[in-house]
């Protein structure tokens, strides 16, 4: 019987976010090629944020090194706004990546935003995820994540309900500090991934990252990035030196 895959956890330090994105792009090209060779498809969960955006722009520049016909793209979280809103993660990915590459439209799975009914939109997207993955075990080939200065990741913000909805894969999440709904993968939906890469840049992240990595018994409700530990997948932290605890 083959050995159960062992979860791994690695930290790599970079001079700046541009260096993080160059490394992430190099590694994603290799990972996507190998995954497509083995399983015929590469399922990628995209993150919002300025650092992920920089990566998408790099991917667009190196578009000839990806087999877009075999790459399925999903959103790990989304703002509760129309797709053409300047706050939309879908719009951000279009501007930085999709508008510049020969993607297959049937491979792009945007969150079906209904601003007046985020609960319905979340349930619908959760159904899409289950349908594409053939069940509730989302074995993403890669989940890209950023981390906020408050230690949030995706749209799992401190002290918000989505942190506790571990019976679900994708939910609407009221975020009091933003006074708005967000839509997000839950922590179990991220932790079932084969690979999870955090991309974290800037000195403003250091206090949060210190808490996220602390050995103290700290609350994951307060520091949601502590929720992320893939059960059998590889967790990578790509961090700038000024963000390192
Ligand atoms: C979002 C992201 C969010 C982001 C972090 C880090 O929709 O905004 O999903 O989790 O990744 O806030 O953003 P920066 O990389 O811009 O610091």
C-alpha geometry: globular
What is the radius of gyration?
A: 17 Å
Beginning-to-end CA distance, first to last residue: 41 Å
Please report the total strand number as a whole number: 10
How much of the sequence lies in strands comes to 15-25%
Oligomer: single chain
Could you characterize the architecture of this molecule?
This protein has 245 residues and is α/β, with parallel strands linked by helices. Helices cover 29% and strands 21% of the residues. The strands form two sheets. It has a seven-stranded parallel β-sheet, covered by helices on one side. Strands 4-8-7 form a three-stranded antiparallel β-sheet. The chain binds 6-phosphogluconic acid (6PG). 6-phosphogluconic acid binds next to helix 2. Residues 47-51, 77, 89, 146-148, 152-154 line the site of 6-phosphogluconic acid (6PG).
How do the strands and helices of this protein lay out in sequence?
Layout: E1 8-14, H1 17-39, E2 42-46, H2 50-61, E3 71-75, E4 77-79, H3 89-96, E5 108-109, H4 118-133, E6 142-145, E7 170-175, E8 180-185, H5 187-191, E9 195-200, H6 206-212, E10 234-240
Parallel strand pairs: 1-10, 2-3, 2-6, 3-5, 6-9, 9-10
Antiparallel strand pairs: 4-8, 7-8
The structure holds 6-phosphogluconic acid.
Provide key terms for this protein.
three-stranded antiparallel β-sheet, alpha/beta, globular, 21% strand, 6 helices, binds 6-phosphogluconic acid, 245 residues, seven-stranded parallel β-sheet
